[in-house]
Specification:
This protein has about 90 residues and is an all-alpha fold. The protein is built from four helices and no strands.
Length: about 90
Amino acid sequence: MNRGRPSENASIEAITQSQAAELLNVSRPCMQRAKSVKLQAERKLGEMLKATPKNTGAKGIGPIAVPDENRNQPPTLADLGIDKKVSQ
């Protein structure tokens, strides 16, 4: 009846990327390449965000004062599916 449920003495342990790679037998060059690709992607995203117009919001007049048809602001980070921490 407890199928799929952890036992009472089960615990969740945090492990580092290098520990996970060791458990999965991932080679060091493969890990280095993955980190390199991730950094390149983050840099490219940063360049793209710099070139993108910024959303200024309602500029202090409130969202109700601007009719829906006049709201043609650039998309927010949330609209683009980008985490705020990643965009910094």
